[in-house]
Structures are given as C-alpha cells and as structure tokens.
Amino acid sequence: MKEKILILIVLLFLINPLVRAETKPVYLVLFEKEVKSELVQDLINKKQHQFSFKIESLIDLKIPNDPTALTKYFKSISNLEYVLFMGNLHSRTETIDFPEYGYQARLNTDFFVDDLPIGRWPFEISVPVVKEKAKKIITSGIFPICQFRQYLGSWEGKKWHLKGYNPTEEGERIKSALHKQGIQFSALYETEGLGPDGNGFEEQPQPDFVLNESTKIFNQSHLVFLESGKLQFPADQKNNIIPYHYFSSPQRIIWREDLDKDSYADCDEEIEITPLVPADEIQKQNRIAFVLVYLDSDQYIDTVAQNSIITIVPKIDNRITQLPFEVGKKAAIMSSGLNILRAVCLCSSDLPQDTIGKFIHSKLPELYQGFDTEYSHQYKYSVLSLEIYGDPSVTLSELADFPHPQLVLKPETVDRNLLIVLGKKNSYELTLKNVGQLDLQWKILEIPKFIKTNKISGTIKPNKETVITLTLNDVEYLIAPQTQTGLLVLETNDPDRKLIKIKIKLII
User: Fold this and answer.
1) CA 50, 54, 55, 59: dihedral to nearest 10 degrees?
2) How far, rounded to the nearest angstrom, does the alpha carbon of residue 310 sit from its chain's CA centroid?
3) CA distances from 12 to 2, 452, 501, 507 (A)
4) pLDDT one-digit tens code per residue, 231-275
C-alpha cells in the first residue's frame, strides 16, 4: 500500500512540478569590436531588474560581422528578447519579387530573426536612457506635403506622372488612434501656397500648429513623427526620367505658384524649399523620433539619434535608384516613408502598450501577414527597411506619465509578496482592481492543476474591481502530498504589470 501511495505522489510531482526556476529575459549587448562597458552602464543600471544582460564582442566570440553568422548566433541564445549592437551592423539581404514586371530587387534589413528587436549604436557616447519621467506626455507629427503633382517625362514610349501626396489623412488617423488612448497629438500640416494637386487647402483638416513651429514642436515632444518633401524633375531636355532628389535633412517644399498654368509643379521657379527642424537647432530630450524620410547622408540622422532616446528611420541605402523605373509605382515603396506611415497608422493604438522594438519588429510586420490587398507587400518591404537607433526596449511609459490602466491586487499582502496560501477546505478571493484611467484587460495564462477558478479573463472599468475565487480541485487533494506549489500567471494591459506571477502554496 505504501508503495502505491509513493508511486501516486511521484506521478503527481511529474504532472504538476514544483515552482519552476524563473529566469529573466536576456538582453544582449553585442560590441562589434572591444567591449566598452561604460557606454551601456546607464542602460544596465536602469533595466537590470527587467533583464539578464549578456555583454559580448564579436572579437572575443570570433564571429564575423556577417548577417548569416549573426543570425545563427542570435538563434543560439535561449530566452533572447532584445539586442543592442554597438558598432556598424551589416544588414541582411531580402529578395523582393515584382512578378508583374518579371523583376527582383534586393532590400537590406535589420530583421535578422522574427520578433527579435535589434537596436544599433554606432557612436562613441553612452547609450541614452530616461533619467527623469515627465508629468505629461506630448506627441506630435510634422507632416509637410511629401509629393506634388509632377510630369516626370517619357520613357520607352510612356509618359510618367507623379500624383501629389499630402499625409494629412495618415496624420489624422494617428491622432484618432492616440486620442482613444487618452493621449493628445498635435499635427503640423502645410497651409501655404498650393496643395499637391495645385488646389488650395480648404478641404483638408486644420493643423494644430503651423509648419513654421516645427523645431519647437520637435524639441518638446516625447513621441514625434517627422516627414519631408521630395522632388523629381526630368533630367534633361529629352525628358528622361530621373530618380527623386534626396536632401541632407528634412525639407518643407512650398508650391508658391503655377507659373505656366499646366497644373504641374515642374520647375524650380515655382518651388520654395526651406529646412524642417535644422540639425543645429535640435535639443537633447527624452524623445522617440520616427524620422520617416530617406536622406542622402547619415549626418542628420546621427544628430537626431544622439539627441533622442530612440530613433526609427528607413535605411539610407534603399533608394529607387537601385531599381529600374519600369517597376513603376510599386518601386516607390523602396524610397518613401509614406507606406511606413500608413503602416504605423494601422496599429498606432498599440504604441502606448508596446516597447518600440516590439512595435517595429512584431506589430508592423503583422500588417502584411494574411493581407490580400494592393498594398500588402508595400507595407511589408517598407517595414523591413526600418532600423532602430538606441535601446529597443524603450516604452512611452518610460518617458512620461500617460493615461493607462493600473492594476492593484487585494489583499495588499498578495500585491506585495505575490504569494497565496490555500488550505484543504479553503477558497480564496483574489481581487483585481483598476485604479487607472483606461479599461484594464486581463486573462489567466497559467494556473496550478490543484486549483480551479470562477473566471479566466475579463475587462475592468476604471475604479472598478472583479473577484477571482480560487478553490481546491477535489480530485487533486485526495492524493496530494502535504505541500504543493505552483504559479498563477496573469497577463494584463497595464504597461507596468504586463505579466504577474503569483506563487500558490497548498498546505493540507
């Protein structure tokens, strides 16, 4: 009889093991050359409670700065969640098919491993971290007219035209999505000269600020989107097509007058170009900057990156100049931040909850998975061209306080110790209270086999609460040893308590 009881106990432990060893997610800081710990010490000090930091160099590992070798190395690290590459990261190449044109293009990308956010820091200064949280979050978008209606010339018997584009629609979508999260968003649009199609601006939404205030708005924002205008004119008298003209910094382009009355912005005399947010006027701030524009050098991006917490940009070396023009409209995805902006719009409501790295490497790529639309592959390859400067684990909640759900567990001893003790005949009431400003979403991801609950998920309104009743599983306690332990794992949309692990201890 004793042997049978012993066997039952052993089987029970195999099915329902004691508390598993909890490990922190791994944050790899990988130096291209020698390790310079002082450059990441502030980052480690700030987030060592969140992550297990792994500091390595390619020299010590004897691994080349090669996409294939790096991908293999990243995949070999269990529980790896973020990578910060200290140096010049060599990109992986993605092949793009344009079957309608019988053509393939090649795209350089930092997407080495699915869902693995990689940040880069090629500077000999410390990686910036948030040292003081602001009381109120400020978000904005600086959206000049990106393209005007232009006649581009002829090529192989075809006449090519460029449709004008004003990103006000995308700006309003981002504003709406963030407003639903309780976050104010200020939009800057063009109001001078002619619109992209040669008409006025009567039909477009009114900006919160004029573009003349772009530098001030940029410097005071915690989250900011910055676009730029670009131009494309015939290259010569034969009207041969030329690629876009790229600038060294974001520019505001005003179509002052249609002098030849042809409804095209087609000559320098009609155009006025002024800089947006000049580099020498950028102040160091706790800022996340989406600089969604291709530039002809790294200098401006370097300035923004070193004066921001994190910077997201399209890759410099992916321009339309790399593609034959017959790829046409769809080739423009390689040179324009517009499709990135469209992609961001579709999931901008997730920005407050996600880290920037997860947002870029997980949320945005989901847009094209399963899409069967004209724009699906445009989104995909626009997103794949993004790169991150700085710590990819940054969240908006690090920069400033913003409206969000906030979970409190009751009794207070459970909230403090994350421990619940159950007896043989006991039931236990665990209260979830939302003391935040937005709805709290919660669900149970894991529960010990020896208990059951009356609820597994739900929504809690601000200043409301719900009670989860924990009771002993009758079948379990009949053969249970005197003491068992397990984990109750809760997932919530509270940005400070996304995953809560409560130890459940059963004493019979």
Assistant:
1) -150
2) 10
3) 15, 17, 22, 15
4) 765 544 454 545 556 788 999 988 888 777 777 777 778 888 899
CB within 8 Å of 45: residues ≥ 6 apart: none
Higher pLDDT, 318 or 77: 77
Report whether 392 contacts 102 (CB < 8 A): no
Q: Which fold has domain 132-399?
A: Rossmann fold (3.40.50)
Task: Quote the pLDDT of residue 321.
Answer: 41
Where is pLDDT greater, at 413 or 219?
219
Residue type (1 letter), 356: I
Among all chains, which residue has been given the structure tokens 């973020």? 82
What are 288's strand-pairing partners? 223, 310
Output phi, psi for 325, to 5 deg: -70, -15
Q: What is the pLDDT of residue 4?
A: 47
Amino acid (1-letter code) at residue 216: K
- pLDDT value for 88: 93
Mean pLDDT in residue range 17-22: 40
Q: How far apart are CA 336 and CA 259, in angstroms?
A: 28
Tell me the Cα Rg of the chain: 27
What is the pLDDT at residue 403?
Answer: 81
Q: Where are the strands (E) in 411-498, listed by range?
A: 419-423, 427-434, 440-446, 451-453, 457-460, 465-472, 483-492
**Cα gap 483→254, rounded to integer Å:** 75
How do the domains of the chain map onto residue ranges? 132-399, 404-507
Over residues 441-455, the pLDDT tens digits come to 999 999 988 888 899
CATH topology (fold) of 404-507? Immunoglobulin-like (2.60.40)
418 CB-near residues (< 8 Å, 6+ apart) = 500, 501, 502, 503
Q: What percent of the chain has pLDDT over 90?
A: 39
Structure tokens at 98: 């344009």
Strands 483-492, 499-507: pairing kind: antiparallel
φ and ψ at 456, to 5 degrees?
-125, -10
Residue 229 has pLDDT above 90, yes or no: no
DSSP, collapsed to helix, strand or coil, labels residue 366 as: helix
State how far the Cα of 453 lies from the Cα of 427, in Å rounded to an integer: 10
Q: Chain centroid to CA 270: how far?
A: 38
If we measure between CA atoms, which residue out of 118, 22, 79 comes closest to residue 500?
A: 22
* Residue 322, φ and ψ in degrees, nearest 5: -80, -5
pLDDT digits (tens, 9 = 90+) for 374-393: 666 667 777 888 899 999 99
- What is this structure's pTM? 0.77
Given a contact cutoff of 8 angstroms between Cβ atoms, the answer to whether 265 and 255 are in contact is: yes
